[in-house]
Structures are given as C-alpha cells and as structure tokens.
C-alpha cells in the first residue's frame, strides 16, 4: 500500500519533478535541487536545497534565525535518503549515493553482530546456571536463617509481653502515686494561693494608703503652687496696670500738650484774622461815616429848596435810594467774604441818618422800604 501510494503521488507529478536515484561504490551523497515531498504538495513555491557530503567532509553546519527552514532542511535530506533506500523516486534532479560499500559494510557488521550474539547467548546460559545454583544455596541458607530468626523473634515477643505487663503494673502504681501526689500538691497550692491572696490584700491596703497620702501631698503642693502662681499673676497684673496707666498718662500729657499747642496756634490765627477783620470794619465804618456826612449835607441842601422843587427832587431821592441799596448790597457781599454779617441796627441807623423819617412819608412806608431792603 505504501509503495502504491508513492507510485500514485509520483505519477500525478510532472516528469522532471521526481528522478530515479543513482548508487555508486565510492561516490558521495550529492542532492541537487532537493525538495520536501510533503511540504512541496502543500506549498507550491517551495525553495529547493542542495547538499554534498563525502568521507572527508561528512558533516554540515546548518545556521539561521528562527522559522528559517533549518529543521525542514534536515527532514528533507532524511526523507530523500529513506525514499532512495526503499527504491522510490525522489523529489530532486540528481542523487548519487555510495551503496555497494555500504552494503558490504552492513553485511560484515551483521556477521560480527551474529557472532557476538551467539557468544553472549552462551555466556548468558552459563551465567543463568551459575545464578540458579547460587540461588538454591542462598535459599537453603535463608530458610535456616529464617527458622533461627523466627525462634529469636518469638523469644523477643514473649520477653516484650512480660515487660509490657510489668510496665502496666508499674504504670498503675505510678498513676496511684501520681494522683496522691497531685492531690497533695493541689492542697498545698490552695494554701499558698490563699496566703498569696492575703498578702496581696495587705499590699493593696498599703498601696491605697500610700496613694491617698501621695494624693493629699500632691493636692497640697498643687494648692501652694496655685496660690503662688495666683500671687505672681496678680503682681504681674498690677505691674502691667501701672505700666499701662503710666503710658496712658504720658500719652494723655503728650496729646494734651499737642492739643494746647494746636489751640494756641489756632487762637493766634483767629486773633490775626480778627485783627484784620476789625481793621477792615474800622475802614468800612470810616467810609460809612463819610458817606453818611455826605448824605446829610445833601438832605440839608434839599430841605432849603422850595416845595415845588421837592417833587422834582423826589425822583432824585429815589435814584439815590437805589444807588444806596446797590452800595449796601456790595458791602454785604464784602462782609460775606469775611464770614461776617452786617447787623440790623447798622442798617437802621444808616437809613435813619441818611434819609430821615420825614422823607419817606409815614412810619409804615418807612418799614416797608426797610423790609424790602433787608
């Protein structure tokens, strides 16, 4: 079946793809354009490889990176050699192999192996016989030894049983003694525990007394320290209060002196301004006196004229009155610049002395004019 499958595979391939291998006596192993028979059927673009081995150089080093085809190359050479030995066509252009020498060498090796095998068989048979004899002798010795060992083991077993019984008896006695000793120890331990408890109670009482004494002492010391700290704190407060009072006094004195100096400066400035205002008022009064004198002279002149001329001059008086009002308004503006108002008495005196009550008619008209002027 295998040969038929190979024949079928070769018959389906082209003629130049598979060739008949050639065997020579002294020829080398030469493969030209060899291919892997299985991978070639899977991959159409298989890359062919060559190899050339002789007796002088019967080794080839295959190197390359991973997945470069090193193992495929080795499998290809092995499969081609096996197919050639079987008698099949191989996937290459040319195959030369040294066959006759290999056949004679294989025959010589086969005869040598047969002779070695017969010698080994004889040696093995002799060795088996010797082993059987030794085995029978050893079995006899072992049976004798087994009997002796069994007797010895029986004796040992009996002795061990006796020892176990004695040990059990001793164990019962020891258990009784141990229970008695444990009971005595427990009683002693109970007494010791009670004694320890009493000692601990006494120690606790002592410790509590010492603790109370220490607490009272610490309270007294704390009270003393607190009293001393309070006294120191009060002294510090007094000192700080005195310092603060002194600082306040100094600050108040300084501020008072500064305030007095400012007040003096303001007084001097006000006195200077008052002097200036008094001087200006004096000048203004002198001017008013002059104007008053002039007005009196005018009234005297007008009183000497006849009554016919008085009607004509009444118009002149009205004009003079208007002029006087303008002058008074200017004076008021001047006094307003100095933040000083003209008293009402001055206005009344000016009107009374300048024009006279008789020139205004009755008293009602005089008051009307005065209200208008004010």
Task: Give keywords.
single chain, 374 residues, mainly alpha, Rossmann fold, four-stranded mixed β-sheet, 7 helices, 4 strands, coiled coil
Describe the structure.
Helices cover 78% and strands 5% of the residues. It has 374 residues and is mainly alpha-helical. Among the domains are: 2-98, 3-Layer(aba) Sandwich (Rossmann fold); 305-374, no CATH class. A four-stranded mixed sheet has the order 1-4-2-3. The longest helix is centred in the middle third of the chain and has 205 residues, at 100-304. The protein is flat, with a radius of gyration of 79 Å. It starts with a helix and ends with a helix. Residues 96-100 and 356-374 have low confidence and may be disordered.
Short description:
It contains 7 helices and 4 strands, in the order H-E-E-H-E-H-E-H-H-H-H. The chain has 374 residues and is mainly alpha-helical. It is flat.
* Poorly predicted runs: 96-100, 356-374
User: DSSP strand (E) fraction?
Assistant: 5-15%
Could you give the distance between the termini?
Answer: 157 Å
Name the helicity range.
Answer: over 70%
| Strand neighbour order, sheet with most strands | 1-4-2-3
The CATH architecture name of the domain at 2-98 reads 3-Layer(aba) Sandwich
What is the total tally of β strands?
4
Q: Give the helices and strands as they follow along the chain.
A: HEEHEHEHHHH
Enumerate how many helices there are, as a single number.
Answer: 7
The named CATH superfamily of the domain at 2-98: P-loop containing nucleotide triphosphate hydrolases
CATH overall fold name of the domain at 2-98: Rossmann fold
The major sheet is characterized as: 4 strands, mixed
Radius of gyration: 79 Å
CATH top level class name of the domain at 2-98: Alpha Beta
The SS-based structural class is mainly alpha
Shape: flat
Integer average pLDDT: 76
